[in-house]
Design brief:
The complex is a heterodimer of chains A (197) and B (462). With 197 residues, chain A is of the alpha/beta class. Helices cover 32% and strands 17% of the residues of chain A. The longest helix of chain A has 13 residues. The radius of gyration of chain A is 18 Å and the shape is globular. Helix content of chain B is 31%, strand content 17%. Classes of the chains: A alpha/beta (197), B alpha/beta (462). The structure holds iron/sulfur cluster (SF4). Chain A: It catalyses: (2R,3S)-3-isopropylmalate = (2S)-2-isopropylmalate.
């Protein structure tokens, strides 16, 4: 996993609520058996029409918007547990997603892949959307160490929460699996002492 | 004063990590072809085996064709993925109920019917509808592929203990109202994010009065309100369902297990982080009008003109996709497809319910009706009871087991622009195929739509 420390970038706005994992990566693209290449089909049915032509009205096809930060409406990533959704976003080139809240499984999947979910208040989210609307080239800084999200355009900075353990993992690029493997003795001791039904 | 959830969770904590997460021991791990290949690759790269092979079971369900299941899979990518599951299971020594096996089926249908799912256990699967198994009083939840690999390697996941919610439904259900209507009603009230961060316990007399199939339908859709999972206290209904199943405990082990399971229900003085109460009498047969499961209403109601739950931009987009107008009724609206299947409603009781309504009637000439049993066992049972004939005589197709048109990963798709009344759990844009328009409903309401040709209130049908 790639470490995440600090990022300054422009952002891509997606002011839609309840963006589900079937939109992020439709099921018919889940047949691959590796983790790579899903970015091509990120938001496939919003990005391309039936004839596979890019839809001009979709934000990823607009030359005005680019960057490593995706900003989306509330309840981002609801639906399926497919980690392919996090892989697709990351593979496309995003390093962080900002929303007022995330679906639980998506959030976990993102964190396990070095994609940082940043939760901000609905007011801050609105302000970010307004800033980008006013200036698509507006820049934002996410400082994981300091746990701050800064709107460089307005200068306002907000704190965001993240689990202490997950923060350490992201900063260092550690996977949960390394940690869990280090706990093998405890796991075996747990198995030995329990009574199962 | 622990709740059912506390009792099961706390009994599985191996250790706690600074910051709040806990290492949670997993008793049963179910895997399928779509979310496991990358996990097996991970193990291979690390050069490590599966830690506890007796705790993992595999099946092929998402991708498998529902026609000609005895022949090689025609679609090359699906075939590759399903074959990869077979070779991975061989290489790592995992029990596989693959295509052609008498136990094959949707992972959330086979776990309970084989007696793998039990009260008091922790169970995970790389699939969000793992919440289904909570109907037995188990902690069951969906995980991502990285976690699938973690459980393969260590039999544990790392997770913060979720918050607790209780949803009570008391009273008597109206005729024509099923478990599916209860959960669609609850989600329409709480919204798709209403359960985020929580595990939900369903309680109350209307829930206790449900069969195991009904309870599974309820827990199945917990994820549709954003909850990590749902669970229901085990009782005699649970034990009667389980007794004698393939992998359920036998003899003295059974008695000891039941004794333990009886200690699991939530203590009377236990408290929850949030509680909701609903009256069973208030619940009508439900349908959805929009593109998430929270956009539901009574079948005779009008689509709301504004919603406090959803953003206006989202609602507008959703109406455009569905080709519907805010404020309109859907009752009487012509439909094109009816799909009876998925891990929500493809168990024997669901098929009995639908067949009971369909018997002696014909599927409307403008409607294509498909029935996909949840497992080979369900299919065999349906055939033994003659349900398949009832469906085929009426003009339904009766297919082989799998996820099918629930997610449109195989060739079972609904064409763009067409309306499908579906007993599945998600009406997301494109879920049943690009451009497909899904209306979620119970097996009764779906069957009624199939024979009528349009959306109909099953209570008004003779
Ligand atoms: S039936 Fe549908 S919801 Fe259930 S596991 Fe299969 S794809 Fe997922």
């Amino acid at each position: 996993m790639q470490p995440f420390k600090k990022l300054t970038s422009t952002a891509v706005p997606l002011p839609i609520e309840d963006v589900d994992t079937d939109q992020i990566i439709p099921a018919r693209f889940l047949k691959a058996t590796t983790r790579e290449g899903f970015g091509e089909n990120l938001f496939r049915d919003w990005r391309y029409d039936k004839l596979n032509h890019p839809r001009e009205d979709f934000v990823l096809n607009s030359p005005a918007y680019s960057g490593e930060i995706l900003v989306a409406g509330a309840n981002f990533g609801c639906g399926s547990s497919r980690e392919h959704a996090a892989w697709a976003i990351y593979d496309y080139g995003f390093k962080a997603v900002v929303s007022s809240y995330f679906a639980d499984i998506f959030k976990g999947n993102a964190l396990n892949n070095g994609l940082l979910p940043v939760t901000v208040s609905p007011q801050v989210l609105d302000e970010i959307f307004r800033t980008i609307e006013g200036n698509p080239a507006a820049r934002f800084t996410i400082d994981l160490e300091a746990q701050t999200f800064t709107n460089e355009e307005t200068g306002t900075s907000t704190h965001f929460d993240i689990d202490e353990y997950k923060k350490t993992c992201l900063i260092n690029g550690y996977d949960d699996i390394d940690f869990l493997l280090s706990q093998r003795e405890k796991i075996e001791a747990f198995e030995a002492q329990r009574e199962e039904h | 004063m622990p709740t059912l959830f506390d009792k099961v969770w706390d009994a599985h904590v191996v250790t706690s990590v600074p910051g709040g997460a806990q290492v949670l021991y997993i008793d049963k791990h179910l895997i399928h072809e779509v979310t496991s290949p990358q996990a097996f690759n991970g193990l291979r790269q690390r050069g490590i085996p599966i830690f506890r092979r007796d705790r993992i079971v595999a099946t092929a369900d998402h991708n498998v064709p529902t026609k000609d299941q005895d022949k090689p899979i025609a679609e090359p990518l699906s075939r590759k993925q399903v074959n990869m599951l077979t070779s991975n299971c061989e290489e790592f020594g995992v029990e596989l109920y693959g295509l052609g096996h008498p136990y094959q089926g949707i992972v959330h249908v086979i776990g309970p019917e084989l007696g793998i799912t039990r009260p008091g256990i922790t169970l995970v699967c790389g699939d969000s509808h793992t919440s289904t198994h909570g109907a037995f009083g188990a902690i069951a939840f969906g995980i991502g592929t990285s976690q699938v690999e973690q459980v393969m390697a260590t039999q544990c996941v790392l997770m913060e203990k979720p918050k607790k919610m209780r949803i009570s439904v008391d009273g008597e259900l109206q005729p024509g109202v099923t478990a599916k209507d209860i959960i669609l009603y609850v989600i329409s009230r709480l919204g798709t994010g209403g359960g985020t961060g929580h595990f939900v316990e369903y309680a109350g007399t209307a829930i206790q009065g449900l069969s195991m199939e009904g309870r599974m339908t309820i827990c199945n859709m917990s994820i549709e309100m954003g909850a990590r999972g749902g669970l229901i206290a085990p009782d005699d209904t649970t034990f009667d369902y389980m007794k004698g199943r393939e992998f359920a405990p036998q003899g003295a082990d059974w008695d000891a297990a039941v004794e333990y399971w009886r200690t699991l229900p939530t203590d009377t003085d236990a408290t929850f982080d949030s509680e909701y109460h609903f009256r069973a009498e208030d619940i009508p047969p439900m349908i959805t009008y929009g593109t998430n499961p929270g956009m539901g209403m009574g079948v005779t109601e009008r689509i709301p003109t504004e919603s406090e739950i959803h953003g206006q931009a989202t609602l507008k987009k959703s109406m455009e996709y569905m080709g519907l107008e805010l404020g309109n009724k859907m009752e009487g609206m012509p439909i094109d497809y009816v799909f009876i299947g998925s891990c929500t409603n493809s168990r024997i009781e669901d098929l009995r319910l639908a067949a009971g309504l369909i018997k002696g009637k014909k599927v409307h000439e403008n409607v294509t009706g498909i029935v996909v049993p949840g497992s080979q066992q369900v299919a065999r049972q349906a055939i033994a009871e003659g349900l398949d004939r009832i469906f085929t005589d009426a003009g339904f197709e009766f297919r082989g087991a799998g996820c099918s048109a629930c997610l449109g990963m195989n060739e079972d798709k609904i064409p763009a622009g067409r309306y499908c009344v579906s007993t599945s759990n998600r009406n997301f844009e494109g879920r049943q195929g690009p451009g497909a328009r899904t209306i979620l409903a119970s097996p009764l309401t779906a069957a009624a739509a199939a024979v009528s040709g349009w959306i109909v209130d099953v209570r008004k049908l003779n």
